[in-house]
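A further point concerns the way the authors explain their paired sequence and structure data. Since the whole study asks how a given chain folds, the encoding of that fold should be made plain. A single example would do more here than another paragraph of explanation. An entry of this sort, consisting of the sequence and the corresponding backbone structure tokens, reads as follows:

_____
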Amino acid sequence: MQQLIMNILNLLFTKDGLIFQIYKNKDFLEERSYFVDEETPYNFIGEKLDEVLAKQSFDEIYVISALNHFTLMPEGFSDHGIGYDLISYNAHVEKEKEELMLSINEKFKVQFYYTFPKDFYKKIKQLGIPTYFNFSGEKFLNSINNKNNKEIHINLYHNQCEFFAIDNKKVILYNNLDINSEVDFLYFIMFTLNKIHFGIHETTFFAYGETTENETFISELQKFVKNLTIVFDNVPNKNFILS
């Protein structure tokens, strides 16, 4: 029986970038990243998305949003009508420009309401291809193997950081920060520890993603914490949250 060939596109949207991967079945074909800087045009990411979607005919698309328009709720919360309002406590929301989405994590019994830019959403959906949307926090949380009592799991991006505080297999806190300074990363992590009463020496730290790109943050963190493990370091053609 002839094997069905599947062309798969993975898309990751971050604070200031777009990362994509293309697979043919399980064979990796291409990965590229685009990031906004002072010289890029206003609609740079939208234009790059158009280029990626036009590359070839895809059979499935997987979209992950790491944009920090979100809120975390317990599993089973069903008042979806106030999703925008809940998110607005953490970030400015423009309903006419943002699509409300929901991702559920059964492993830790929590769910994320998040928004995704409507213009990107429409560009992708209008192709009529089976498309699966998810929030980076849910994908990250589902990748965590929790063993110890108090743990901090940190996923590093380009100018961005998301982290979970977990105690005895329960999510205590999640945050997704848009920061340009690695020193600020460290400040927020240590500030969080103090607020939730996680002692430095009793907490185990795990880092993922752009750990080499954020080596200053990693080296500074190692000065303060006793137990730090680099679980996954992004290398070319292998992105943690897309793997």
In short: The first strand starts at residue 7 and ends at 14. The chain has a mean pLDDT of 93. The chain has six helices and 13 strands.
